[in-house]
User: Fold these one by one.
Assistant:
Number 1:
Amino acid sequence: MKLAQTLLLFLAVVGMSSCGDPSPETLRRRGDRVLEALVEELECISSKETLVASQPQLKEYFLNLSKILLELEARDELQEVPENPLGKRLKAEMARVYQIDGARELVEAAQEPARLALELDRRR
């Protein structure tokens, strides 16, 4: 669940700006697209079986979000803003999916590579 909270913080990311890097607006759009796809994937999960089938895609979304977050953190360009509708949808879908028997463990397994990447970076 900590990764989910970190991803919600990502919703608040303003972005970064330096020569050759994506603009803050580009990064916001990129993050929003990944989060939207993550929410849509979660919305399709209705059973443990569909969650198992979705695990590779969920893992990819979590990793993509962690990479963007790490890039922004490295430049000290994170800024919190009020939660938006996408963040609310993500929270609601995570809560719904967690109601499926065995889902918490499966979702956390999909989050694990992204969580480890964030943890490793923070230890540096």
Note: Confidence is low (pLDDT under 50) at residues 12-19.
Number 2:
Amino acid sequence: MSTPDNPAGRLLSVLHSVKSAKINAEEPAWQVWAQIFSLEPNSTAVMERIVELNLALDQAEKKMSDLGRDTADYKKHIASIRRAISPNLFNAKWKTVLDQLTDGGLMALSGYSDIISITGSEGEVATEQLQELQRAVEDLIERTIQVGVTDEFSQFVLEQLEKVRQAIVRYRFRGPGALKAAMESVTGAMIGSRELVVEAKKTRPELYKELGSVMDLFNKTIQTVEKFSPYAASLAEWGFLKMLGPGS
């Protein structure tokens, strides 16, 4: 069984859920994709997920190429996967998508995943850890909004939490790389807004501490992926907010 520790494995995981879904084959594809991704039937949001699927396939093919593997025997089967997730089928009947998800295509994608996993696994974050982080992020977003976004720091907090929330959503497609990118973005924002954050320790101490707790949890989540552990550990050694230096 292929593992979702690489682009091909993550795409395969999504497509297996697609194949097993009990959905009317006559429905428009975009409506079904919305159900698969637990989205409101909003064309823009659904299309963004379709793009993510295509990017995952692109990354898988690039990794195979970088490994110097001969993919000639896989190509014709992978082509069916490419057609199944094509934006061109966005308004087609769902049956048209399912017809392209052939057993040969899924087996070829599984082959990609197995090869990439052996030589270039990105690691995995446990579902339970992602769910814990997601709950913490969403709870703090809700509490911050309920109290009222009446100052610059509150707005700043919401912006950073949204980056983390989006990274958790994208993990299904981009894996640990999505988390790393969000961590780097949040870290840069924290350092760039050091005066604002340090001042908030005095003016918004509770929110300051809550943000620190969530970000430390984010650190610990990333540390479970060995590839990124040196980066995350450099922050976790002092605690997320302490990285801002004296006065924080």
Note: Residues 7-120 form one domain.
Number 3:
Amino acid sequence: MLLNDAVQITMAITKEILPKDIPVALAFRLEKIVNVFREDVNLFFNMRKTLVEKYGDPIEGKEDEYTFSSENQQKINGEIDALLNSPVQFDESLKIPAVLFQNVTMRGTVALRLKSIMKDVE
């Protein structure tokens, strides 16, 4: 699994699924997956912030907002893409049976992001 997958899965779980009224057993298993990815995902966001500060020019009067020259935009995009294509560890035993999601409503894009942590998906 790639870091990009871990980031997308973590965001989908924390922003789209866990805030819903879902069965506790499913929430528990999802939280375990988030915890597995937490260190890598946090490291990615910290590294991305470092890259933004390195290549960006702060916008005066606006906190945490930057502009980028086209050259620096290409540099930061390349470095972020390289980070996102880094492999991360995921124990296949943590996969969740798809049937546990049967009564959970979610957008199609969220379902696609979560497909790689489900097992028995038809």
Note: The first strand starts at residue 57 and ends at 58.
